[in-house]
């Protein structure tokens, strides 16, 4: 115990020293003085970051808690996959996060396009982005997706950096395979800084990548999860394939909390929902805001009378808008 | 004369096999170099160049000074060049080959006097015509000038008269320049050659500022820019940059060339430096000055994006940025096409009425080419039970389908096979789009392919 305390003391001393050299206050997590003290306040170079604007709630409470309030909007977020054959899952999760982060205050999808930067070998291995599917699952309409294809990693990094600096994109996705030596701490730190300055997210999507240190403050490991069953009027349809599902391991976050979540994606509302065993369903209520149940999932109650969910304006109108807009 | 005869006469003679391709390349590189004097350079035959110096001579201190300068610099490079200057290409051709000294410059109107003593070869005639003329005793151009034209034309063909008229300036002769003449061009001659990329970029900025005034006067912007770097030893490097919208801002132009120069840096050999840098606009487009919207910044953003796209294209190549567009087709691979940025046609989706049926679920990634898989199904027409893709075996937990997609017979010459698509999910939860091509009971057995990947 004493040893740990000493080690911590040393770390703090070093941090202070670094801060002194840089002429700023050290970055630290401080508990706010107000009651509760649930959400940590992140201080960046001495200035407390406004959590509400800097982060976007994913809608999954435990995930938001582990992320320190939500996903950072102006940051580099790394999404890794173990194998290239999971490319649909990994890029799908990145696009889901992009869809959530790029929503503006009123929940509407952003009018800005997405720039998808990838190396040519990724396209050959994992396939080209396919617009009809992207529209169905993530609301990416034609004209809002640009694909930048680079032959070399340097070019891809350069393109992503320039795009991140521009701020004209709702998100920049950089897609790579494996663990290239050039994608080191310096390269990722540059990306992160650009993202932070422009206030736009950059997603680093890495297929078949072994974990290695990068400057991204958040890192997810996305792996497949069996999808929920398709919901019909007569109950879940056996052996059917429902909306997308992801097994997501948060392996690095600002708060230091990690965890594994099984998330179902609701393509209509562009929102996540955490999957729980049937018994736990009711307990979500007490923890406050709950993700809208679009009716895509298995009904909460099997045996008792289940009042039909009230028709929600959001579902139909959002889709209508997307279609016409 | 054979080599043996030549050797007998001059034992020390050096015999080199003629290499037309190399000669041509050399002539072209000299023509490139001559671009520094005038943009209108044409190659003539195997050994000649036409330079149209209308309006250029004063830049080099007059006609004579310019002629001397060209010959001097070519001599310095190790070429034995003969040059002449005249009002017509035909006269200049003749003077370059058959005149010496001050006669090399033929003043306008002095063609007849200069041509008269020259042999018939000066008229660029075919050997047969020339032999025919010589056989009747006409050995000099002067003899033709005085002769009646009609009998000449009747006997020796109209080419003779045309050549004569072209040399004398009675008939127009156009030379065909090798390169299209840019509408706008600015250049800077340098006393001290430059070699570093930074210097070149500074110079581009200077030139672009000059260019901007010209573009503003014309109410145009540049759609394509060409940078010509003339190396001291005669090599010319040309660097092209395209823009997706009319551009005239010097800083933006410099930025575009910065990316291009970074991309070609390894191939750009500065050698002893460049002593002439020319920036020309090869394609222009009307420049519309748009009113800025105070509330929205979309216009600016669009412009910013266009500039970024141009820079990416300058660095990574013209097809680096792709825009997926939708086409009217129900074949998955035809539904989406990728067009290079700036050349895309808008998606046809808006033009077509929406179908009333809900859209079929489509993958988010589509393999460029469907990859064959080995699949086994429970029943012949049913979904696969297991399949092997890229050396890994997948056990299908759940499957949806089939969705039958028939080939587009109205487009194909060779009939393609019908496809039955299945959405499958394996035991771990990976979701793929597989199809079985062909029908049972036909000549060829159906085959399985993996086409797309779902999230």
Describe, in plain words, how this protein is organized in 3D.
The complex is a heterodimer of chains A (325) and B (455). Chain A is globular and about 65 Å long. Chain A has a domain at 73-227 and 237-274: P-loop containing nucleotide triphosphate hydrolases (Rossmann fold, 3-Layer(aba) Sandwich). Chain A has helices spanning 2-22, 51-54, 61-67, 87-101, 120-126, 131-138, 153-166, 185-198, 313-324, and strands spanning 29-30, 41-44, 47-48, 55-56, 71-72, 76-81, 114-119, 128-129, 145-150, 171-177, 202-207, 218-224, 230-232, 235-237, 245-252, 259-266, 271-274. Residues 30-39 and 278-317 of chain A have low confidence and may be disordered. Helices cover 31% and strands 24% of the residues of chain A. The longest helix of chain A has 21 residues, at 2-22. In chain A, the strands form four sheets. A nine-stranded mixed beta sheet of chain A has the order 9-7-10-11-6-12-15-16-17, sandwiched between helices. In chain B, α11 packs parallel to α12. The mean pLDDT of chain B is 86. Among the domains of chain B are: 184-314, Dna Ligase, domain 1 (2-Layer Sandwich), CATH 3.30.1490; 321-354, no CATH class; 365-453, no CATH class. In chain B, strands 9-10-11-12-13-14 form a six-stranded antiparallel barrel. Chain B is α+β, with helices and mostly antiparallel strands and 455 residues long. Chain B has 13 helices and 14 strands. At the A-B interface, α4, α5, β8, α6 and β9 of A face α12, β7, β9, β11 and β12 of B.
Number of DSSP strand runs of chain A: 17
N-to-C SSE string of chain A, H for helix and E for strand: HEEEHEHEEHEHEHEHEHEEEEEEEH
Given the helix and strand composition of chain B, which structural class is it?
Answer: alpha+beta
> Strand pairing plus helix content of chain A: what structural class?
alpha/beta
> Gap between N and C termini of chain A, in Å?
60 Å
What Rg of chain B do the Cα atoms give? 34 Å
- Shape of chain A, please? globular
Helical amount of chain A? 25-40%
> Which CATH architecture of the domain at 184-314 in chain B?
2-Layer Sandwich
CATH class of the domain at 184-314 in chain B: Alpha Beta
Number of strands of chain B: 14
Mean pLDDT of chain A: 78
Q: Residue share in helices of chain B?
A: 25-40%
- Kindly report how far apart the N and C termini of chain B lie: 79 Å
> Helix and strand succession of chain B?
HHEEHHHHHHHEHEEHEHEHEEEEEEE
Count of helix runs of chain A: 9
Q: What would you call the shape of chain B?
A: elongated
């Amino acid at each position: 115990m004493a040893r740990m305390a000493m080690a911590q003391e040393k770390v703090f001393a070093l941090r202070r020293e670094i801060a002194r050299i840089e002429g700023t206050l050290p970055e630290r997590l401080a508990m706010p003085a107000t009651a509760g003290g649930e959400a940590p306040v992140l201080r960046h170079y001495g200035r407390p970051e406004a959590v509400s604007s800097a982060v976007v709630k994913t809608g999954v409470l435990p995930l938001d808690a582990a992320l320190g309030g939500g996903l950072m909007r102006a940051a580099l977020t790394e999404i890794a996959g173990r194998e290239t054959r999971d490319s649909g899952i990994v890029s799908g999760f990145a696009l889901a996060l992009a869809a959530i982060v790029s929503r503006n205050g009123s929940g509407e999808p952003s009018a800005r396009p997405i720039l998808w930067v990838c190396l040519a070998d990724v396209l050959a291995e994992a396939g080209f982005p396919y617009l009809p599917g992207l529209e169905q699952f993530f609301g990416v309409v034609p004209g809002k997706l640009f694909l930048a294809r680079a032959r070399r990693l340097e070019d891809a990094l350069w393109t992503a950096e320039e795009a991140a600096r521009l701020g004209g994109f709702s998100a920049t996705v950089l897609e790579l395979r494996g663990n290239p030596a050039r994608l080191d701490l310096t390269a990722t730190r540059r990306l992160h800084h650009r993202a932070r300055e422009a206030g736009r997210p950059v997603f680093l999507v890495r297929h078949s990548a072994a974990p290695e240190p990068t400057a991204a403050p958040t890192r997810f490991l996305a792996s497949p999860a069996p999808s929920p069953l398709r919901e019909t009027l007569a109950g879940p349809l056996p052996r059917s394939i429902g909306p997308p599902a992801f097994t997501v391991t948060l392996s690095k976050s600002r708060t230091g909390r990690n965890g594994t979540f099984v998330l179902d994606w609701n393509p209509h509302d562009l929102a996540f929902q955490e999957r729980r065993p049937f018994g736990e369903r009711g307990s979500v209520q007490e923890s406050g805001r709950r993700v809208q149940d679009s009716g895509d999932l298995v009904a909460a109650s099997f045996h008792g009378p289940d009042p039909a969910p009230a028709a929600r304006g959001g579902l139909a109108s959002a889709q209508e808008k997307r279609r016409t807009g | 004369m054979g080599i043996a005869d030549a050797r007998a006469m001059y034992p020390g003679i050096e015999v080199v096999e003629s290499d037309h391709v190399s000669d041509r390349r050399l002539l072209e590189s000299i023509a490139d170099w001559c671009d520094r004097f005038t943009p209108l350079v044409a190659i003539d035959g195997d050994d000649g160049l036409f330079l149209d110096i209308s309006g250029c001579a004063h830049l080099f201190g007059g006609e004579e000074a310019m002629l001397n300068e060209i010959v001097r610099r070519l001599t310095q490079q190790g070429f034995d060049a003969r040059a002449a200057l005249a009002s017509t290409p035909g006269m200049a051709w003749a003077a370059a080959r058959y005149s010496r000294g001050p006669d090399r410059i033929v003043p306008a109107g002095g063609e007849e006097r200069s041509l008269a003593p020259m042999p018939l070869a000066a008229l660029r005639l075919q050997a047969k015509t020339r032999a025919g003329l010589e056989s009747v005793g006409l050995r000099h151009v002067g003899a033709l000038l005085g002769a009646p034209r009609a009998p000449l034309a009747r006997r020796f063909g109209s080419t003779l008269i045309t050549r004569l008229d072209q040399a004398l300036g009675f008939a127009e002769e156009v030379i065909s320049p090798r390169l299209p003449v840019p509408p706008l061009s600015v250049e800077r001659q340098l006393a001290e050659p430059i070699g570093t990329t930074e210097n070149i970029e500074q110079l581009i900025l200077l030139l672009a500022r000059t260019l901007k005034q010209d573009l503003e006067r014309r109410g145009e912007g540049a759609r394509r820019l060409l940078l010509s770097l003339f190396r001291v030893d005669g090599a010319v490097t040309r660097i092209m940059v395209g823009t997706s919208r009319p551009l005239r801002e010097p800083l933006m132009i410099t930025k575009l060339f910065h990316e291009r120069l970074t991309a070609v840096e390894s191939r750009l050999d500065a050698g002893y430096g460049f002593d002439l840098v020319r920036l020309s606009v090869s394609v222009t487009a009307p420049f519309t000055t748009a009113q800025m919207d105070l509330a929205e910044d979309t216009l600016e953003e669009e412009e910013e994006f266009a500039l970024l796209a141009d820079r990416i294209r300058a660095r990574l190549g013209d097809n680096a940025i792709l825009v997926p567009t939708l086409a009217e087709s129900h074949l998955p691979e035809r539904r989406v096409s990728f067009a290079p940025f700036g050349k895309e046609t808008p998606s046809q989706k808006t033009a077509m009425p929406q179908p009333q049926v809900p859209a079929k679920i489509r993958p988010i990634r589509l393999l460029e080419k469907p990859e064959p898989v080995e699949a086994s199904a429970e029943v012949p027409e049913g979904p696969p039970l297991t399949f092997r893709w890229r050396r890994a075996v997948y056990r299908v937990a759940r499957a949806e389908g089939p969705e039958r997609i028939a080939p587009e017979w109205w487009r194909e010459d060779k009939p393609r096979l019908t496809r039955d698509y299945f959405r499958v999910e394996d035991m771990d939860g990976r979701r793929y789009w597989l199809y079985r091509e062909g029908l049972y009971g036909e000549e060829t057995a159906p085959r399985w392919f993996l086409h797309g990947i779902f999230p």
